[in-house]
Each structure stands twice: as C-alpha cells, then as structure tokens.
Amino acid sequence: MFDAKDFIEKKVEEIQRRIGKEEAVVAFSGGVDSAVCTVLALKALKKGQLRVFTLDDGLRREGEPEWVVRVFDEIIPVEIISVQDDCFRALRGKITGDEKRTVYSNWFGHICGKTAYDFGAKYSFFGSNALDSKETKRGTQKQHNAWADMGVDTEKQFGFQVVEPVKELFKDEIREVARALGIPSEISERMPFPGPGLAIRVKGEVTPEKVVLIRTTTTIIENALLSFRPFQCLGCLFQDQATGIRNDIGVFGHIISIRCVDSKDSGKTATPTRIPNELQDNIAKRILAEIPEVVRVVFDRTPKPPGRIEYE
Questions:
Q1: What is the separation of C-alpha 106 from the centre of its chain, rounded to a whole number of angstroms?
Q2: Where in the chain is the domain with CATH 3.40.50.620?
Q3: Contact call for residues 271 and 306 (beta carbons, < 8 A)
Q4: Which of 134, 153, 270, 310 has the fewest Cβ atoms nearer than 10 Å?
C-alpha cells in the first residue's frame, strides 16, 4: 500500500543528496504534479537555493498565471515569466499534434534553460509522472517534459540536469502526497491539463485568435461540469468549419467538441461522464451565445480506449 508520508521523507533525503548546495529552479504550471515537486524541493533545500517560476505562454486557462501566484503566495513566491509572443512564433505553421508537442517541448526546454542560467542553477525540477513516462516511451503521446524518455540529454541541449521527484507515481498517488504536504485543495484536486496547454486543444495551426475561442470554451465547460468531479473535461476546436446561420444569414463557423470523462486508474482508461441532457443543452447554448464564431457544438462519448482523452 502506498504511504505518502514515507514517500515524502525518502524523496526529501534523495533531493538533498543530489542537489547538495547547488541552486535549482522549478517550472510550476499550477497543476498538482508540479506543485508537489515545488513543495518537495522547498522542504529539501535551504532558503535561497530555489527559484520558482510559471510561464505565461498564452496557452493557459483564463488568468491562470496570476491565479498560481495567488494560491501559492503563502508557500513560496512564484515569478511570472511572460513569453506569449515567443511561444506563438515557435508554434507558427505547426499543424499536427505531434509537431506541436515536439516544438513546444524544445521551446519549453530552452526557456527553462535560460531561466536556470539566469539564476545560476544546475538543476531544474519537473512534474513528469508515471503515465507521462509510460506513454512517451511507447510512443502513444509525447509529453513535453519527459526528455529522458525521448533520449534527450538536457544538460547538453538546454544546460540543466532534470530532477523528477514524482516520476514513479500515478496521478492518484501524487494527489495523496499533495494532501500530506498540505497543498491547497484547489491544486491537489485539480484536474489534469496538458503541458502544451490549449495548443493541443486547437486542431491545426495555433493562433492567438483561436486560443481565445478555446479558452472561453474551457471556462464555460469547467464551470458547468466541475460539480460532477470528472477526471477531466475539455473542449476542442476543430480545424474544419461547418455551415450555420447568424442573423438570418448563412455563415461558415467553428465546431467545438466537448469531452468529459471519469477514470478510476489515473487516466490509463476512461469512460464518458453521464451529463444530463438539459445541462448539455445549456452548455451548448452558452458557447454559441458567447462565442459567435462557433456555429456547432458536439459532445464526444468515446471511452479510452480506443479514443485518448485529449484529441492530440
């Protein structure tokens, strides 16, 4: 049986042995995986050894970087690094999910490397978990920071050594550790969110305009469905468009797909959440009313397998 307190004790000692008196940085996304990494590093290292930052890359939820700073304010200061323009330039012209994940991974590594260099840090902490590692190794889905599993020498390519304290844990175990560490519940119980953010919830090329549409959709969906406590809920903006009617005029507009799933094994498998028809109607009406560029909303009822939770 997994013992979170025992894990914490052993992992803190392991971090202390490895890092010693060197400096380190943590890329904190606001999810439970990176939150646990941050607090473990904070417990293991002395004051002044650790710098925590979060990226405002233009691909987060609405107001997420500021939310991360506010929620973690009493634990450790978190610095926001604004890199939106740089991120969208890196993704320009990339169409497939694999292209976007590969480019984002390389871009993210270089940004973390620059931050580590500026701080004089030799080590960088990341929240790669057991499912990330497993899926990257077998090629079903590359995770943006699972560099070792992709054969990347981060010290040579980016200038830092990777520290992955929760790499052997699945999501349910990481949540146990988060609770034992006293991490706020709005983070410890938070649903998964992809590393490349909303870039992989936009089919085709990613643009700031498309991201605005899917970010608004994400806010509507999460506010409507969080009470069901799903493992994950999300929207995806399709690349194809469909015919519609706005103000009695025929138009071509965007298609949004909504996906909400439950999982009992940390996302290895998933089943569609049972959402009342009336609530589905209300969600669709809100999206169509608040995002006039969208003319069609569909609900995805595919389990995993065969479908993955994310579309890319």
A1: 16
A2: 4-188
A3: no
A4: 153
What's the pTM value of the predicted model, to 2 decimals? 0.91
CA distance 181 to 7: 11
pLDDT at 142: 64
> Looking at residue 151, what is its pLDDT?
79
- Domain covering 4-188 assigned CATH 3.10.310.40 in the classification: no
Digit-coded pLDDT (tens) for 251-288:
999 999 999 999 999 899 999 999 999 999 999 999 99
Question: β-strands 271-272, 249-262: how paired?
Answer: antiparallel
CATH fold for the domain made of 207-300: GMP Synthetase; Chain A, domain 3 (3.30.300)
Q: What is the pLDDT of residue 141?
A: 62
Residue in the structure block whose two tokens are 């983070």: 187
Nearest to 175 by CA among 229, 236, 123, 234: 229
Is 188:179 a contact under the CB 8 Å cutoff?
Answer: yes
pLDDT at 24 (0 to 100): 97
Instruction: Report the pLDDT value the prediction gives residue 221, as an integer from 0 to 100.
Output: 98
Q: Can you list the residues of the chain whose pLDDT is less than 50?
A: none
Which residues of the chain are in CATH 3.30.300.10 domains?
207-300
Residues 6+ apart with CB under 8 A from 304: 261, 263, 267, 269, 270, 271
